[in-house]
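Bench notes, afternoon.
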Amino acid sequence: MSKSKRHFLDTFFYPKSVAVVGAARSPGTLNFQLLSNLVNLRFGGNIFPVNPNAEEILGLKSYPDLQSIELEVDLAVIAVPASRTLDIVRDCIARKVKCVTLVPGGFSEIGKQGEVLQDEILALLRQHGIRAIGPNALTPVNSRNNLVISFHPVEKLPQGRLSFIFQSGLYEPRFGWLLSGLNLYISKIIDLGNKMDINEVDALEYLSHRTRRQKLLLCTSKALPAMLRNSCSF
């Protein structure tokens, strides 16, 4: 890969703006945490909470929908129930959002009905050239710009040289352990979820060209529990 050519995953890891669709007002809720991590860690780009029932969240103007956002949206983090996701994806297309992370579960992992919905979303995104991580994913994390898409409250994110590729959200409940209990200094994390669009090959291609003198770990859902039990493997 040419160093001068921008990889599509750059937009996920280095967005100039992030819209959190489904951002919540109530502290302690998961969707509140998605937004508060970006605010508390002082993410280096614009942050747009999207919630039709709020005018302001954490001191930020809240928007009723993506179309109401005046500036460009690089990354949309979609955190609404699976049944509403297709409509939000259509909004992303209309708004010309560059890439999306699909947080909710309830797709191919639950059976045929969820698989049909997931395939419909994928076809629509591909038709309009929008790349997606997930569904059933919490990602990305980048210590270089304090970008954290996570349900886990993160107080600090020291820069490191260790990058993870996860296929399972199992890492999420152990996120605090990765940062503090194991004293790991993380560079990037990508959680692939259902791998509807972006998969391990994409992630390995991207990170392998951007992690010189760094370590890269690929963790599947079966390998992760054993790896975390045996922390000496790090």
